[in-house]
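User: Working on a comparison across species. This one is Solute carrier family 35 member SLC35F1/F2/F6 from Phascolomyces articulosus. Can you predict its structure so I can line it up against the others?
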Amino acid sequence: MSLLNSLQSPKKQWLVPLCLGQILSLCITGTSVASSALWTYHSVNIPYTQNFCTYLVLFTIHTLRLHHANKNNNTNDDLEPLLNKNKAWTFFGFSFADVQANILAVLAFKSTSVLSALIVSSWTLPCIMLLSTLFLGYRYQFGHFGGVVLCLFGLFMLIWADTMADEASTSNHSWIGDLICLTSATLYAISNVTEEYLVHRCTTEEFLSRAGFWGSILSGIQALIFEHNEWMTIDWGWKVVALIMVYVVSLSSMYSLGPSLYRLSNATFISMSLITSNFYSLLAGLVFLDAKMPKFYPIAYILVIGGVTIYNLTNPPRTNHSEYESIKNDDPEINRSYLCK
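Assistant: Here's the predicted structure for Solute carrier family 35 member SLC35F1/F2/F6 from Phascolomyces articulosus:
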């Protein structure tokens, strides 16, 4: 099937996932800008603590929403998701992959060169496609591969523009750092594909309540082990607190909007959309940090957006898993009993 033919039956609302994907990308930008400002201006580096606060907020808000929804429906199963031992391990696995991917990504940039870390991290996108094919039964069309290739080309242009202007980005290379980065990219792919699988079987409140529960426990334990001394040395002024709040609000918003986008599209599309966060981070740097615009950045941004648009205009990937396809096509509220009860 040619690319032209695959684009002849686009989704009627193709613009909605595209815009929602860019909102998620802006949320990611908010987290990176807040973390950079914490380190640059206040020498604060507490990623475990920041993630703990985010997961705790998700758990609190969405557990209350779940309780309210079940109360209105005259049911009493709002605590059951957390007590179902057979299903809890699925969410534990998702939260573990998600938490460790975030932390390893930070560690990777400290353990190897920026160029190497960025290139190796691009493994996330093809890894998501591979996992989706193996475990979700996806069968991608030519248009999907064309969009991904165009998106990756834009990503490599972003990397090239960054590294050509900064010789330090190619120093401090380490194979151990590359391995850490590869592990992080793989864990990101696992968490994204797992999230797509879960959100089609649970309501948003149920998914985020469980993810927040396990995520807050995992990141909280690691924060206590690795960052308790850092807590005592931080000057907890209002600026530090405000930046942490920006991080938590941005990441919480991304997690809260994510299930809606997964139901409109898939993990591959979301991963492609988030690449533009590099461009938005640069715009933030231009405004707040006197950064300079590399001349190829606008072209790279257009390529990424073009790749995402082509992917989204192509008919959705087919799947040979009839059970999964039927769940995707139905209201998730109807299918909540499939996994959540």
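For your comparison, note: Residues 1-12, 76-83, 330-341 have pLDDT under 50 and may be disordered.

User: Helpful, thanks.
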